[in-house]
């Protein structure tokens, strides 16, 4: 019996101990946190729709423009819109009429040429015209670049006429000298620049000469002469070897409304010349002026190139004029240049430039005798309208003065 009671007590104690252990372990374990409450979401304000009432404006303090502080105490300025510059259209110039242009420029020519005319008049006015005096007359003519053969002819005619005349008043001497000089210059030569072919237009003019003679400038001035006479002109910039030659020619053309055909720098000059004539025919231009290259005339390459340009142009139509530009100040060297060019391109006319400087007027006679072709134009200065058709009588009057 005691044993049973003891077993029951032990069982009770064991059960109690086990129960305490279970309760302690439960207390040590933390329960998971409760789930968070659902957050309150504030809905964005609804956008106004068509027909909704606008919100009642709030009362705010407003200031007038006078109460607003401006920088530096100035007044409010309104910025003006930027001004758009208009493209400048080049103004077309009206060239000076060519009729009588040399007469108007006579004073300029006579200032540099009086040494020839006045020198001859002084010698002829001597009381006794002996052999020494006639030799001085010859020297004066030779110094003026008249040339040996023309000088001898002039002196012989003067000696005969002075001998027959007997008395020699100043007016008689001036008239005598004027008449003989005009005969020497050649009043009967055809000096018209041929720009009107008989069959069809345009007239084709090729301008040749070495660099430095004023060839490109002369071509531009010739365009002004033609425009002044009522002709339409196309310019061909076939001098492709000299830097800015095409730009220079185009500038001259733009001044009088002449179109310029050009190619790439260093390109084929013959191709440019061909295109210029082609365009001149297409637009019905009256004249095509072709400016050619002008490197040293002693280089065979230049002469070959000029010959090629001439042949290519003549595939369209024959050339009406080949004008050789010579610097009148070069004297006899100019004659050498003239001779070389004439062998290649058949010169039909001469343009003498810089005749208002240190040039001697006798070069007109010499170059005509050398080539057998007339001087058709002369340049008397740097002005745009200082290129004049050559008139023998006006030229001689400038030589001997009034």
UniProtKB/TrEMBL annotation:
PROSITE patterns on file: SRP54
Highest taxon in the source lineage: Bacteria
The keyword Cytoplasm is assigned to this record: yes
Catalytic activity: GTP + H2O = GDP + phosphate + H(+)
InterPro entries associated with the record: AAA+_ATPase, P-loop_NTPase, Signal_recog_particl_SRP54_hlx, SR_rcpt_FtsY, SRP54_GTPase_dom, SRP54_N_sf
UniProt EC number: 3.6.5.4
Protein localization: Cell membrane; Cytoplasm
Region annotated Disordered, chain positions: 25-67
Cellular-component GO terms for this entry: cytoplasm; plasma membrane
Keyword Nucleotide-binding among UniProt keywords: yes
GO molecular function: GTP binding; GTPase activity; signal recognition particle binding
Family indicated by similarity: Belongs to the GTP-binding SRP family. FtsY subfamily.
Role, per record: Involved in targeting and insertion of nascent membrane proteins into the cytoplasmic membrane. Acts as a receptor for the complex formed by the signal recognition particle (SRP) and the ribosome-nascent chain (RNC).
Subunit structure: Part of the signal recognition particle protein translocation system, which is composed of SRP and FtsY.
Record-linked HAMAP family: FtsY
Protein name: Signal recognition particle receptor FtsY
Organism of this sequence: Streptomyces parvulus
Encoding gene per record: ftsY
